[in-house]
């Protein structure tokens, strides 16, 4: 049986009086590719951002590779871990966002190298070798010395993915990575993710690309109003939804 990489229990997140996550339970096994689908505002991205502490949460636990993320218990009190400890834990995950967040004054290779040098304290030559390997893996070896402004949106997103993966994360998080791209550029990014899935990388993806979720996922999670309404294998979820809410969602989605 595959090892559990991520374990979420009773996760609750509020903004003021608005409860965004209402007691979410979820686990991800090593090598699993899990797509999270649902309407805007259902809590998908918030859950993802809680996993690597880009968002603090009010209740519940998140464990990555058996290590509790973000908080610890002192007596009867729940306390946030130090910024240094959270930064170390955050490096256990890689995350690609809707926006590419590349440094415009750095080449593609330099963007990928930055975390390796600053966080992992690698020498430039070693970091460059890793950067070149991953840029080649995402089909951009010929663009290693190009700056973001010289790259298409799809190419910039592939650099951002290479940058995250170069850090050797235990879990890769993707948050709607194609939503900011022109339609003709979506396929090249999805193809990279498909290749990573085929390599056995453990991934948690928020996506609105239903056909992609159907083809690539080992499991699909459907979220609605801050809770997981339904989850299971893609064929069961997309072909034979068990809840009326999922059936309604699929009718209005891009899956056909």
UniProtKB/TrEMBL annotation:
InterPro entries: AAA+_ATPase, ABC_ATPase_HisP-typ, ABC_transporter-like_ATP-bd, ABC_transporter-like_CS, MetN_ABC_transporter-like, P-loop_NTPase. It is found in: Cell membrane. The keyword Oxidoreductase does not apply. Residues 6-250 form the ABC transporter domain. The keyword Cell membrane applies. Keywords: Amino-acid transport, ATP-binding, Cell membrane, Membrane, Nucleotide-binding, Transport. Gene3D superfamilies: P-loop containing nucleotide triphosphate hydrolases. Pfam families: ABC_tran. One of its GO terms (molecular function) is ATP hydrolysis activity. One of its GO terms (cellular component) is plasma membrane. It is a peripheral membrane protein. Belongs to the ABC transporter superfamily. This is Amino acid ABC transporter ATP-binding protein. It comes from Rhizobium tropici.
């Amino acid at each position: 049986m595959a090892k559990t990489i991520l374990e979420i229990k009773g996760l609750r997140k509020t903004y003021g009086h608005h409860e965004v996550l209402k007691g979410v339970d979820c686990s991800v096994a090593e090598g699993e590719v899990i797509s999270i689908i649902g309407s805007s505002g259902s809590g998908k991205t918030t859950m993802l951002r809680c996993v690597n502490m880009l968002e603090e949460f009010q209740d519940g636990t998140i464990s990555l590779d058996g290590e509790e993320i973000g908080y610890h218990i002192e007596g009867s009190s729940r306390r946030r871990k130090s910024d240094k400890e959270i930064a170390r834990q955050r490096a256990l995950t890689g995350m690609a966002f809707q926006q590419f967040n590349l440094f415009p004054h750095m080449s593609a290779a330099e963007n990928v190298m930055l975390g390796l040098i600053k966080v992992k304290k690698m020498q430039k030559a070693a970091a460059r070798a890793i950067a070149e390997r991953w840029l080649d893996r995402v089909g951009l070896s010929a663009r290693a010395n190009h700056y973001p402004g010289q790259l298409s949106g799809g190419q910039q997103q592939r650099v951002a993915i290479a940058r995250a993966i170069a850090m050797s994360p235990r879990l890769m998080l993707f948050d709607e990575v194609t939503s900011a791209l022109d339609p003709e550029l979506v396929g090249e990014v999805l193809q990279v993710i498909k290749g990573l899935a085929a390599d056995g990388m453990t991934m948690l993806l928020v996506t609105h690309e239903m056909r992609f979720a159907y083809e690539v996922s080992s499991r699909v999670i459907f979220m609605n109003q801050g809770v997981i309404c339904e989850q299971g294998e893609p064929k069961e979820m997309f072909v034979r939804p068990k809840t009326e809410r999922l059936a309604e969602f699929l009718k209005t989605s891009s899956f056909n």
